[in-house]
Specification:
Blueprint: E1 5-8, E2 41-44, H1 45-71, H2 74-111, H3 119-122, H4 127-153, H5 169-180
Antiparallel strand pairs: 1-2
């Protein structure tokens, strides 16, 4: 099956209705600002089919829900609505708690000098679990950083004098002057 392409220009013609459908605002005419149109986006048929299927599934679910509620008696409807509201409230509370744990984790990371990029990895179910995760991660992270620093600084010792004879300051100055003469 050949994939069809649909092109949609995501532009808004402001003022076309106000000016009687003439030229778009900002186009033509001296002294008017010209508005650049954003590039058109191309959607293939598979993407459009997926959008339509998602919309149909949502609509079918809403119809099924409405039919389910319509078949219930008053007491069943009331208890169903209470259960639904309680579930929505629990979901909201869980999301709020997750945001609070993430904010707490950011504070803990800042106190332990750990980059905040790792917050999503280290957030636990409780503040104590988050602290334990950060402590364990910090130890391993610091050890890995130290190992990399030592690896990059490793090298050979510079070769120079024997190091056995210590010249006095005057002798060193004289040797330096002799070098230039």
């Amino acid at each position: 099956m050949e994939t069809e392409k649909n092109t949609v220009a995501e532009t808004e013609v402001a003022g076309a209705a106000a000016s009687g459908g003439g030229e778009p605002s900002g186009a033509g005419g001296a002294g008017k600002e010209t508005k650049q149109e954003p590039a058109a986006q191309t959607y293939d048929q598979a993407y459009i089919d997926k959008l339509l299927a998602d919309q149909k599934a949502a609509m079918d679910a809403a119809v099924a829900e409405a039919l389910k509620v319509a078949k219930m008696d008053e007491d069943s409807k009331a208890s169903y609505e209470q259960e639904k509201a309680a579930k929505e409230m629990a979901d909201r509370e869980a999301k709020i708690a997750a945001r609070e744990r993430k904010a707490d984790a950011l504070d803990i990371l800042a106190k332990n000098d750990v980059p905040s990029d790792f917050v999503d990895i280290l957030v636990g179910d409780t503040t104590e679990k988050t602290k334990a995760n950060v402590a364990a991660f910090k130890g391993k992270f610091d050890a890995a950083v130290q190992a990399q620093v030592e690896k990059r600084l490793a090298g050979t010792t510079p070769k120079g004098g024997s190091g056995t004879s210590a010249m006095s300051e005057e002798e060193a100055m004289a040797a330096e002057i002799d070098k230039y003469l």
